Amino acid sequence: MEKLSDGVAPSGGLNASRMGENFFVPSSALRRFFSWGLVIWVGYLLTITLFALTGGDLAPYDPTAQQVLARLLPPFSSSSRGFHWLGTDQLGRDLMSNMIAGARLTLFIGLVGNIIGMAIGVVLGMIAGYYGGTLDRLVMRLSEAQTAMPMFLVAIFFLTVLGPTVLNVVIILPTLIWPSFARLVRAETLRLRSALFVEAAVATGATDWSVLWSNILPNMAPRIMVLAVIELGHVMLAEAGLSFLGVGVQPPATTWGLLIARGRAYLAVAWWLAIMPGIMLGLTVLALNMLSRRFAATSGSAA
Amino acid sequence: MNQPSLSAFLLARLRDGLLVLFLVTLVIFVLGHMIGDPAALMAPVDASEQEIARLRRQLGLDRPFAEQFANYFGSLVRGDFGQSLWQDRPALTVVLEALPATVLLTSVGLVFAGLGGSLLGVLAGARPESALDRGANFLSITALSVPNFWLGLLLIVIFAVQLGALPTSGFASWQSLILPAGALAIIHGARVFQLVRSATFEEMTKPYALVARSKGLPERLILWKHILRNIAVTMLTTIGWEYVRMMGGAAFAIEVVFAWPGIGQLMINAASRQDFPVLQAAVIIAGAFVIVTNGIVDLLYRYLDTRIRAA
What are the chain B neighbours of A145 within 8 Å (beta carbons)? Predict the structure, then answer.
């Protein structure tokens, strides 16, 4: 049942034959990984990352500059300031500039939430899989209990009580995703623990820590990566959902989820305000999903 | 031989479910007590120090944490979730009033998600790499990649604003059900599709399908009789899991988008008015719903799949 909880199903039986192949051979791995479709998705993600790193410097206009005479302009229209690719909002602010400026916080929250969730899941999963026994039962019970909980609702409660701040959003998001990392890592650790090279390391007197860190972790890293790429999409969607519902990031900070929320009031007169930021976010998550599928198909992982 | 194991399973499920529900209330309680002093929040603005202290005693806030939680949990079990601060009625009543609308919306959404997702999934899985498979696959990944509330807004823009065909919000007639239920059906149907598709694909490569094909059975018969029977359990549990997911999040965002008078809408209103009793009642009731559905799906899975029962 575990596999069902991931957003994207494995693509079928093709992968089994590739299991165990060495995927660290750069040339053949790259050749299998390459496709023109993928270049577009990766290019899109790199562009978004560039937007995030430069924090709005690449935006055509100042995202906060208002213009009374150029309110609610549709996409591809001009004002006295110049051309607006995606139109303007109710205060005459350039929508595209706002979306570019919003990339920074959207990506930052997604990445930080994802990395924390991954770290928790990997550590707990390795402990559960390596030591077994009571520790294993405890971790697995915890992850099961949490999966059964309506965590999104708990997140809404949490943010209402403690205040909708970026910090609190970053604290609550990892709780949504760590169980899937813990389950994957536990299963992988169990599998690798009995591998010959792990037994050899143990026999030479390596400490638990060093076995886990330098023998087990590197061997499951590709699978963790595939899952991390999928979960990054989930975290970004969750942040957008919380911000849309008004319990996430608050203005004047900008994320794509918040831009959608802001545009909602003008749906009848200016559809682009809500729809465009959603397309940007949707394309980002779609690119991540495509990347993880490709990655899973070529590394023999069905995560 | 199956009977005792089934009842043992039932009991274990019930215990786990109650445990999770208990954990939810504990989490809610701990969070609720992190806001600082509930007495100061509930007291009138011009209350004196002494009046606040008295209220604190009345509410039992000067007692040890464990005792407070025991009292809190005791009153929850008795069905006392406190008074709504905003409507001045019992919080539980407010939440239970909103529940039928949520159940109606999610049920209709689930039926269409299940039917559409399964049908397309079987057809696509039977013909891998066909135009239908590729197209439906891409569409479903896209549907899973966009924010659920955004999809709702998109449907409003297309069908209500541009075409003027359907009502956008509220709960006026059965027509107002179409867009929100449609949004839920697309989002959750996409995942049903993905899972049914890969199940069908896998089943098609199994020996019995090969035998059926080699003895000359028409492809259609193999698909709709043999394959379908073998993936039926996967299909049903997948759909059941989708209901759990729906009640755990997407349904609430969709309710807010379409101003649907259900629990999600209520929760967000309560959150913006800082009405904690209603908020916590909503989380716990929705949580109980999710947990019960989870249990039923698990049970159904056990009961329907004779292979698991035999094991």
Answer: 16, 19-20, 23
Contacts of B56 (CB under 8 A, 6+ apart): B37, B39, B62
CB proximity under 8 Å: B 142-201 to A: 142, 144-150, 153-154, 156-157, 161-162, 191, 194-195, 197-198, 201
pLDDT in tens, A164-210: 899 999 999 999 999 999 999 999 999 898 888 888 998 998 888 88
User: Residue A56 pLDDT > 60, yes or no?
Assistant: yes
A44 burial (CB, 10 Å; 0-12 / 13-18 / 19+) is: middle
Helices (H), chain B: 2-32, 38-42, 49-58, 65-77, 91-126, 131-145, 148-155, 175-204, 207-214, 219-221, 228-245, 251-257, 263-272, 276-304, 306-310
Task: Report ipTM (2 d.p.).
Answer: 0.84
Q: How far apart are CA A8 and CA A261, in angstroms?
A: 27
Give the pLDDT score at A31. 66
Residue of B nearest to A240 (CA): B147
Report phi then psi at B60, rounded to 5: 75, 20
**DSSP structure class, residue A195:** S
- Smallest CA–CA distance, residue A65 to chain B, in Å, is 26
> Can you give the pLDDT at residue B254?
92
Dump pLDDT digits (tens) for B100-120: 999 999 999 999 999 999 999
- Which of A41, A142, A160 has the highest number of chain B CBs within 10 A, making it the mutation to test binding with B? A160
Helices (H), B165-250: 175-204, 207-214, 219-221, 228-245
Asked if the bond preceding A252 is cis, omega within 30° of 0, the reply is yes
Closest CA to A280 of A23, A119, A98, A128: A98
Lowest mean pLDDT among A227-231, A269-273, A299-303: A299-303
